Structures are given as structure tokens and as C-alpha cells.
């Protein structure tokens, strides 16, 4: 489909669930408590839940070599507050605020990474290449394909063949840096210490390249490459497009060219929010598949992108998951809205993020049945 070729039917694809969604469904008896607790993208539990609902596979079914901090910081309690909330140092060196009963993205209180001294002491040593970054996740290779043992790995290895597309996670070239510094801190760094800014981006880019290269040397045959960023919000990017093109673009190009040398021509990218201003930069540097095309209040869709960029632009996502909290009629209307987008080719519908706790089990099942009925091939 993404190569504009004939296909037997449209796959019914998902992007996982909030943990609260799984807990709710377990309480309703649709899945077991064990399944709710042990679910992970691409693991055997993921396949079991998908089969019950009617999905074919999770797009985020990827092999994940370690491109981030190694080792991560040890989580520790910084402060217990009178209201029951806690200030906690997380694995990325960020002090976050945890509140009882609150499941949204936590508030950032402070960041361990503030300047060159903290970079060189705490972060640079954790961003060095080591064989462990690839080998600790490699279990075996069958027919040129790699299996992984933990909950983030593939559940679809059958005598050397996968039942569904299997991707190679190539890392994050800016989003993780934003996590470590914080949006404000990273914005100031560009002006206060541009040499350090360049060094940080270069260090992360080189690590992602080396890890991807080594993985491909050991286990070729992946169906697509995949990056994570999450560097946009509802009105646009969290980084200036010109700076992103100049500083980060070359690292994308280097890795996507490596992927293509190994026959991987589909390269997808996970970025939420309104990404219109960054999209041409990704395209120019070899990323050709947008995911999950978060509809949001800005009504994102592949249609205007395709009109502007042509068939080089592909997409997976763009299905407004909010209809799962409504009724069958709303779901049918959403699928009808997607029909002309599917007709464009190079596009696979998928809920536009994790399925939320307000989703009704029967509604999700109806969506899977209706989508399969509407797009038989």
C-alpha cells in the first residue's frame, strides 16, 4: 500500500492503548488483569488483545536497539509534598511532579542538564556507543530477521517469517534532547552556548547512526525504519524550522540513506501535533511516512500534504480516535471520511494515538469490522 502497489485488503492497524484503557477493559472482563499489566507494543499480549478486538497489528511493532541514555538515571524521590504529590528524578534526569490519581504528562520541575558541566558529567558518558546497545536486545536471527525477547519486541516470528510489517527504531534526533533540557532550557541554549548546542545534537545523531548501522549489519530484512520526535504542539513546532533543517536535517539524511542502502524505502516518523512546517524538512531528508497524523483541533489530514508534496508523502494514522467514546454511527461517519484519503493511495488508516480510557470495547470492535468491510482491497 505504501509503495502504491495492488493489495488484497487494507490492514486494520492500531497504535496501542493507554494503561488506564486496559485496566478499564480488564475490569469489564474483556481481557485479563495479567494482559492489562503485561501489554507492550509488539509483544505477545499485544497480539492477543489485537486479535480479540479485530486489529491486524500495531504499527509500533519495531526492534528497539538502545539509542538513549545508557544507563538511564536511577529514579529517586526528591521531595514528598504535603498534598501527597512527589517530586521525583526520572530516568532522563528530569525532576517531575507526580500527583495521586493524575495520569497526564507530568509537570517538569527541574532538569539535571543545565550547562556544559552537567552535560559532560552526567550525559555525555551515557551517550557513548557500545555493542551492548544492540546485542542486549538481539536474541536470534531467522532468515535475516531479528527477534527480541522483552515486552517491546516482536510477537510475530513464525519459522523465520513475520505475520506483519516489522520496523527498526532508529532513535530520536531532537525530541530526547528537548526532554533532557526542557523546552525553555533548550531554547536558551541555542543562543547562550551554540557550540554546546551543536555538540549535543551531533553526539545524539552520531550515536543513532552507529546503533542503526550495527543493527543492520547483524540483522537485515526490516520492513521499515522508524523515528520518534514529538516536537510539535497544536499550533506548530517546538523548534524553529530553519534551525531544525540546518542542525538536525543532515543527521536524518545520513541515517535514511543508510536504511535505503539496506533496501528499506519506507521510513516513518512519530510526531504528534501540527507538524506542517517540519514536514518538508523530513521529506527532504528521507522520511516519507507520517505517523500517527494526530487529527487534533487543527484537523490534520494527509489530503493537503499529498496535494502539496505528491506521492512521495505517505501516511499511517489520521483516524480520529475520539469516536470510540461515541457510537457506531460516529464510527461509520469517520470511516466514510477516510474513504477518499485511502483512494489517494500510500495511506493506511490508524487511530491517531493510543486508544484512550473513554473508548468502549464494542465500539473498537465495530471499527475493526467496519474498516475491514469498507476496504476489502
Q: What's the gyration radius in Å?
A: 21 Å
Structural classification: alpha/beta
- Give the termini separation: 10 Å
Strand coverage percent:
15-25%
Residue stretches low in confidence (pLDDT < 50, at least 5 long) are 139-145, 147-161
Number of strands: 19
- Counted by DSSP, the helix tally is 13
Average predicted local confidence, pLDDT: 91
Largest sheet, order of strands side by side?
3-12-13-16-17-18-19
Shape: globular
Main beta sheet: 7 strands, parallel
What's the helical proportion of residues? Answer: 25-40%
Descriptive keywords:
377 residues, alpha/beta, seven-stranded parallel β-sheet, 19 strands, globular
Q: How would you concisely characterize the structure shown here?
A:
The chain is α/β, with parallel strands linked by helices. The protein has 13 helices and 19 strands.
Structure in words:
- The chain is an alpha/beta fold and 377 residues long.
- It contains 13 helices and 19 strands.
- It has helices at 19-27, 33-38, 44-53, 116-123, 132-135, 175-181, 183-192, 194-218, 241-261, 279-284, 302-309, 328-343, 361-374; strands at 13-14, 57-58, 62-63, 76-80, 86-89, 94-98, 107-111, 140-142, 145-147, 157-158, 161-162, 167-169, 224-228, 232-233, 236-237, 267-270, 289-291, 314-319, 347-351.
- The longest helix is centred in the middle third of the chain and has 25 residues, at 194-218.
- The protein is globular and about 60 Å long.
- The model is unreliable at 139-145 and 147-161 (pLDDT under 50).
